[in-house]
Write a structure and sequence with these properties.
Structural class: alpha/beta
Number of domains: 2
Order of helices and strands: EHEHHEHEHHEHEHHEEEEHEH
Mean pLDDT: 95
Distance between the termini: 35 Å
CATH topology of the largest domain: Rossmann fold
Shape: elongated
Low-confidence stretches: none
Strand order of the largest sheet: 2-1-3-4-5-11
Helix content: 25-40%
């Protein structure tokens, strides 16, 4: 490591995803761990992160103060909550640090509130950081553009039983890709919950179904159902480390770039 190696802060470092992000940064020869933030009152506060994770010292003390952690950082990786992410976006803008956002569950209004911060720092937000899912997103748009509204689109996702939001951020990202390809706004055509006597399916709508159970890492199907045939695009994640590696790739990609909003399609150079 050198003085020019980007220092990265991990938000929510004590969580399942946070620990993987810490490990991904520490395993990289292109980044260094500059800070680890946990919630106030957590038993990690004041401890060396390595010791807190049950391993050797890393030389970084966990804190509940994100401002302190980001004081000398060049990037922050943030898989937390929408409310926390909005606070971190403001701090990242002040620090001119690359802000990688893996947080999901935003409302449209909250997403709009991220825009001012992106005028002062590079902001990379994606419902999913994996290469495979972003390839799936591109394929979804291609297929949706090729088929007319006579083909019904359904997005089915499955996650572990502790996931708090539904549909998943990835499912919504896939829905957005399909809607954009059809020249419509997802919020106008999304069917996000069906129960009881719902009546016939509305042509052109995009449906979502969510499954929660066990320790499922993440599975997403995009179903195009026509008369007499179906096309099913699927991605299955078996290791959460793919998200950590993707987020690290994003924060490194953002170094030295001008302020603005980006997503993983930009990071991976997959085009639009």
């Amino acid at each position: 490591m050198t003085e020019t190696t980007p220092g990265i802060v991990i938000m929510g470092a004590a969580g399942r995803m946070g620990r993987m992000l810490v490990q991904a940064v520490c395993d990289s020869d292109q980044a260094r761990l500059a800070g680890a933030v946990v919630r106030e009152g957590h038993d990690w506060v004041g401890q060396d992160v390595g010791h807190a994770m049950g391993g050797p010292a890393m030389g970084v003390i966990a804190t509940s103060d994100p401002l302190e952690a980001m004081a000398r950082a060049q990037g922050v990786i943030d898989f937390t909550t929408p409310e926390t992410t909005l606070e971190i976006a403001h701090l990242a803008a002040q620090a001119r640090a690359v802000h990688v956002i893996g947080t999901t569950g935003f409302t449209d209004a909250q997403i709009e509130k991220l825009v001012p911060a992106s005028r002062h720092c590079t902001q990379i937000r994606a419902g999913n950081m994996s290469l495979g899912v972003n390839l799936l997103t591109g394929l979804t748009g291609m297929v949706a553009a090729a088929l007319d509204e006579g083909w019904d689109i359904e997005v089915v996702e499955a996650h572990h039983n502790q996931k708090a939001d539904a549909p998943s951020g990835t499912a919504l990202m896939l829905g957005e890709a399909a809607a954009k390809a059809r020249g419509v706004t997802l919020s106008q055509v999304a069917d996000r919950g069906r129960d009881g006597i719902t009546g016939a399916r509305t042509e052109g709508h995009i449906g979502f179904s969510a499954i929660r159970g066990g320790d499922i890492v993440g599975e997403h199907d995009v179903i195009f159902a026509g008369k007499g045939e179906r096309i099913v695009l699927r991605h299955m994640a078996t290791d959460r480390m793919i998200f950590a590696r993707g987020a690290l790739r994003a924060v490194l990609w953002g170094q030295g770039r001008p302020p603005g909003q980006h997503d993983m399609i930009d990071v991976l150079g997959l085009g639009r």
